[in-house]
TrEMBL record:
One Pfam family in the UniProt entry: ASL_C
Keyword Lyase (UniProt): yes
Name of the protein in its database record: Adenylosuccinate lyase
SUPFAM superfamilies: L-aspartase-like
Length: 495
């Protein structure tokens, strides 16, 4: 049997198949059905504004000859949106099959409900006579740009941002609880000045929250100004109407978007490029975090919690593979590739209009879907690891040479104070420590060979690789302040 003949239909992509559970919330806002539902909402709210004017229910129609809609008629129109479900999706699809035009199909779909309104509202309703008010003076892009912006805004604010905040907040709690855990830093893959695990995690929290703030402040622009952005048909049909004011009212107060007064036939999509750039940047920071976590696991700094019944390798029973972090990496990369393409292509249009943006924007759901899937994997991975302080302390104990930095810096300070024998501090420490494995006794002997003042000598001798972490624990407070009363939910030992 051919797979294409199986019902229900087998999904083509993993987002709607293997990973449907993780990406399902985006269906509510970024699926084709969600877009059509939002298109219906735009058409309905435009009708209500034209019939009732503004402020809300002022009973001064924008279009002469139209009677204001009653509250019952307005409720009926809005119920078309609320009732858009499986039957509605099929009916819209049938109209689109005939018209080969998705927005025209929306118009005909609404017309059906206007014809049927007498059954609910009685023969006195004017709705059947108002078919010509549907899509009045609009081009398809007037409807599409508003519907798309509202879909994306809801998807980001209701689904993506909560997932991003949830993962970042957990990382902040992990940073706080690891604030005092000394960690051997590696720069260029080589032992370097020690830090704390909490401070290194807090660096990622700081980076991620900056991008979250950018995304939270994102504008979502909209326009409703006709075929080439001139209100041409509007002013010919109704010359006494302030169409710019009507447009602003609709975009800002009825659609909840930012008014864009200057467009071609399409809204220019610059805000989309800004948004996708910020989300792509967030993805890349997360990718960096996933790679670092993977390498910390490989190094033994983090230990993975075994999942009962899970198989790490088909042939090596001992393995617990860091697959959540690997899956996160791959899906962040896929998301970034789509977001970067969207950001670079949507800002261009041939003269006043071409249709490349229409098909391109149908991939917004996939772009955010891969990011959401990656966030789910990264969050799950972070929940499944805990630090191994024995490994961390062992690494530090094997690398006393990292104290070369504070010793030579103290020598510089002593030389500046006129202390003899402190010249060429960098070179002297380099001669002792570079390319050699040394221990505590070697460090103490070197300190004793120099004429440090007593306080400096004692301060240097008291240093160990574990204690040489500077202000790392205090730096964590910038993103994960200590709260003694908060429950430790990370499975870490209390410090």
């Amino acid at each position: 049997m051919r797979l294409t003949e199986i019902t229900p239909a087998i999904p083509l992509t993993s987002l709607d198949g293997r990973y449907r559970k993780q990406t399902l919330p985006l269906v509510e806002y970024l699926s084709e059905a969600a877009l059509n539902r939002e298109r219906i909402a735009v058409e309905v709210e435009w009708m209500i504004l034209l019939a009732n004017g503004f402020p809300e229910n002022s009973n001064r129609p924008v279009v002469p000859g139209v009677k204001p809609l009653s509250p019952q008629e307005q409720d009926y129109l809005r119920s078309i949106v609320d009732g858009f479900a499986q039957d509605g999706i099929a009916r819209h699809a049938a109209y689109e099959a005939k018209t080969h035009h998705d927005v025209k199909a929306v118009e005909y779909y609404i017309d059906d409900f206007l014809d049927a309104s007498t059954g609910t509202l009685g023969a006195q309703t004017q709705l059947p006579r108002l078919k010509t008010l549907v899509h009045f003076a609009c081009t398809s892009e007037d409807i599409n740009n508003c519907a798309t912006a509202r879909c994306i805004k809801k998807a980001v604010e209701q689904v993506w941002l909560p997932a991003a905040r949830r993962m970042t907040d957990f990382l902040a709690r992990k940073a706080r609880d690891c604030r005092d855990m000394p960690l051997l830093a590696l720069t260029h893959g080589q032992p370097a000045t020690p830090t704390t695990l909490g401070k290194e995690l807090a660096v990622f929290v700081h980076r991620l929250r900056r991008q979250i703030r950018h995304i939270e402040q994102q504008e979502y622009l909209g326009k409703i100004n006709g075929a080439t952005g001139t209100f041409g048909a509007h002013t010919v049909a109704c010359p006494d109407v302030d169409w710019i004011a009507v447009s602003r009212e609709f975009i800002e107060h009825r659609m909840g978007l930012t008014f864009n007064p200057l467009t071609t036939q399409i809204e220019s999509h610059d805000w989309q490029a800004e948004l996708y750039g910020s989300i792509s940047h967030f993805n890349r920071v997360c990718h960096n975090l996933a790679v670092d976590a993977w390498m910390y696991i490989s190094r033994g700094v983090f230990v993975q919690v075994p999942v009962k019944g899970a198989t790490g390798s088909s042939t090596m029973p001992h393995k617990i593979n860091p697959i959540r972090f690997e899956n996160a990496e791959a899906n962040f990369e896929l998301s970034c590739s789509l977001l970067d393409t969207l950001a670079s292509t949507l800002v261009e249009s041939r003269w006043q209009r071409d249709l490349t943006d229409s098909t391109t924007q149908r991939n917004i759901g996939a772009a955010l879907g891969y990011s959401l899937l990656a966030l789910d994997n990264l969050d799950g991975g972070l929940h499944s690891i805990h630090p191994d302080q024995t490994v961390m302390n062992s690494e530090l104990e094997r690398n006393w040479e990292v104290l070369g930095e504070p010793i030579q810096t103290a020598m510089r300070a002593q030389e500046l104070q006129g202390r003899p024998g402190m010249e060429r501090p960098y070179e002297k420490v380099k001669e002792l420590m570079r390319g050699r494995q040394i221990g505590k006794s070697d460090v103490e002997a070197f300190i004793d060979s120099l004429d440090f003042d007593e306080a400096t000598s004692e301060r240097l001798k008291s240093l160990t690789p574990r204690s040489y972490t500077g202000l790392a624990r205090r730096l964590v407070d910038f993103e994960a302040p200590q709260d003694e009363t908060e429950h430790n939910d990370l499975g870490l030992p209390q410090q």
